[in-house]
Every structure is written in structure tokens, then in C-alpha cells.
Amino acid sequence: MKFKQSKHPFYILLLICIVIVGCIQSGKANQKKQKLQQEKSFTIEDQILAAEKNYKLLVNNARKANNIPRSLEKNAIKWIHNGFDWTEGFFPGSLWYIYELTNNEKWKKEALYFQELNFDDRFASSHDLGFVFQCSYGNSFRLTKAEQNKTALIDASNALIGRFNEAVGCIKSWDVDSGWQQQRGWQYPVIIDNMMNLELLFETSLLTGEDKYKDVAISHANTTLKKHFREDNSSYHVVDYDSITGVLRSKQTAQGHAHNSSWARGQAWGLYGFTVCYRYTKKPEYLTQAKKIADYILSNSTVAKENIPYWDYNAPNIPNEPKDVSAATITASALIELSQYADKKYLDKAKSIIETLSTDEYFAKPGTNGNFLLKHSVGSIPHGAEIDVPLNYADYYYLESLVRLRKL
User: Fold this and answer.
1) 378 in helix, strand or coil?
2) Which DSSP state fits 383?
3) 76: which strand partners?
4) Which of 37, 188, 353, 379 could covalently link to 243 via disulfide, CB atoms 3.0 to 4.6 Å apart?
5) 332-363 burial by CB neighbour count: b if 16+ within 10 A, else e?
6) Which one of 85, 121, 128, 240 is the catalytic residue?
7) Of 276, 264, 175, which Cα lies nearest the Cα of 224?
């Protein structure tokens, strides 16, 4: 069979060029699609391996310094200062989570070593004792049942309830006799962050059989529920009370953009705290509040579309504002637990947040980022502290999320 030769070779050549260009463009589109799929691909096991690589390097540096890493400052590791620091329990807590995820005795050994650096701080007069001791010694006791952990947890709980005022119904946050807190005119400030310290008290009641610890926790939660939240279920950061009568004096912020704005990490603290309170008490009002906070967070346009919030939902220069990865990790971990008591939509969102945090945009490669896991967290913009840096508590709640997801 003979084909008739075309009288218009130019058009044939043009057609061939169009086909070739189309194939090239299609190939590029497929490559881009595959790249996006690879970036979005996420497995817990891959992230565990990646976490180990980073933390092997971070532990080596911490051993040399005989200190606990908190963040980065001018591209150098920012270590815990001498004396009590509210973040000092997160690094050993992260090591406990890596041990739990890998069952590698090396991580158990390192966790024990670094938590021991904080043992004497169990008597500190601080509202943050729950952060320090539940995250480190609490996880240690959960995984090993060692008796020394009990001592640390009970002593820390006794110190914590020593800050409770019956007239107010809450544990006092900051002392106001010195520092920047003195300049704010507060008498008895209570911050939403305090909800995170109640888990220690609930656990200590279980350890000892004494109700005094959980009674303080429930009183604190009840007062916070009544006084800290706006009609839209967002939270104020600081509520100040009269130290004698317990009467509410003011509602302010210390780390948010404005008194009436929604500081992103504060919303996460509230969500996590009320979810924990429901776990221990099964009081329906705590579950209701946790769901209300979760729905408020998830209704935020940035969280809905991009998973990672700006440091304050009402920051004035969005989208030219820092995001806060620490708020995202706390939220994700809380949503995983909340999903076990409520709608599974919370689990879907938690997975989506963790997948986003596991991309190269947020998860650091070994040898970078001071060997912390996650980039782009914010400590306190009003104080000019720890802006767009890694934070040890962002890593902690990310690893906790991996533990919780794997258990599911």
C-alpha cells in the first residue's frame, strides 16, 4: 500500500514539533506531579528513622555540653540556663518517645541521663513543673515503672499545688514581684498554658490514691473554663485575679499580638489541656470545650488551607508574619487524642498537619537546624525571643504525635 506524499511538508514538520512539545510538557507535568506526591508521601517509620539521625547528632552535642538544648540563637545551640527552665523536660521526653518508637536501649540510656539533670528542680516554686516532670519523669515511669520516677512526680506535684489559691480557684502562673511581670500590674495572673500542667496532678492522684492533687486540677480547669474563653471559643492568654477575693481584674496577653487577639500556641494549649482533663475525669463539659476549641482552630483559614498557623491568628501583617510550628505540633497531638472521644475528622486533620510538618519545608535534614527536628517555630514575638527557630517542645509534641498515630 502506497502513501501519497504530502505537498505541504512544512505543516507536517509543524505538526511533529507540536507533538514533541506536548510530550515534553506532559513529561514535565508528570515529573512535577510525582515530585509533589513524593513530598506528600509520609510514613511513620520513615520519620522515626529521620528523627533518630537528627537526634544522634543532637545528643552527642548535648553530652559534650552536659546540658539540655532548648533552641537556636545566632545559629548556635541555645542551652538551658543554669537554674529552672520551663522547657527542660522536653528534650529527655523526646528521647523517651524515640525509645518507645524504636525499642532501642540507647535512647532509654540517654533519656535517663538527661532527665537526671533536672531532678533537683522538683522542689521549684513554678507553675511549669508539670511540663518539666510529666514530660520527662512521667514518660519514664510509664515506660519503666522505676520507683525514683514516683519520687520526682510526687515532689513536683506537692510544689505545684503549693501555688493554688482557693479564693481564685487556680494555680498561680507568674510571680509578680520582679522582672517584666512586675511591670504589668498583675496580682494573681493565670495563663492558658497552665492547663498543660494538670496532667501531672491527675497522674499523681493515681500514683498515691490521694484526691488532693486531682481536686486542684479540676478546680483550675473549671475556673479556666468559666473565665478564659470568649464567645467564639478562642482564649485569652492571661487572666488576672484579685489575690485576696478571687475577683477577676483583667484579661490580657503577654505573648500574643493584642489583648483581644488569638495567640496561636495559647489556643493549642487550651485544646490539649481540656482533652487531657476529659481523659481523667470523663466530665462532659471538658469534652465539649475541647471540641469547641478544636473547631475554632480548624475554622481558621490558614490552618484550614495550610495546616500551620501564623503565630497569632490576628497578627497584623499576615501573610508576612512568622508561622509557629510549635502551635501546630501541640494541636496535632491533641487532635489525635480528641478523635478517640469524638469525631474522626479530628484524626484526619491531625494526620494532615503531621504530613505537612514532615516535608522538607518544615522537617530539617541532619546536620542542619542545630539537629533539631523541626524548623519555623516562635517563642515570643512581643519579647523578641526565639523567632523563626527550632524549639525543643515543637519536637516533643511532633514525636508524641508519631507515638499516638502508631498506636492507632
Assistant:
1) strand
2) T
3) 73
4) 188
5) bbbbbbbbeebeeebbebbbebbbbbbeeebb
6) 128
7) 276
8 A C-beta contact, residue 209 and residue 152 = no
Query: Choosing from 121, 155, 193, 395, which is the catalytic residue?
Result: 193
How confident is the model over 172-220, as pLDDT tens digits? 999 888 888 887 889 999 999 999 999 999 999 999 999 999 999 999 9
The contacts of residue 194 (CB under 8 Å, 6+ apart) are: 127, 170, 171, 173, 220, 224, 273
Q: In the numeric block, which cell numbers belong to residue 226?
A: 468559666
Interatomic CA distance for residues 280 and 125, integer angstroms:
25
Phi, psi of 391 (to 5 degrees): -135, 140
Whole-angstrom distance, CA of residue 200 vs CA of residue 208: 12
pTM of the model: 0.90
Whether 242 sits among the annotated catalytic residues: the reply is no
Annotation says 193 is catalytic: yes
* C-alpha span between 227 and 189 (Å, rounded): 12
β-partners of residue 190 are 239
First to last CA, the chain: 66
Question: Position of cell 500500500?
Answer: 1
For the segment 340-355, what is each residue's pLDDT rounded down to a tens digit? 999 999 999 999 999 9
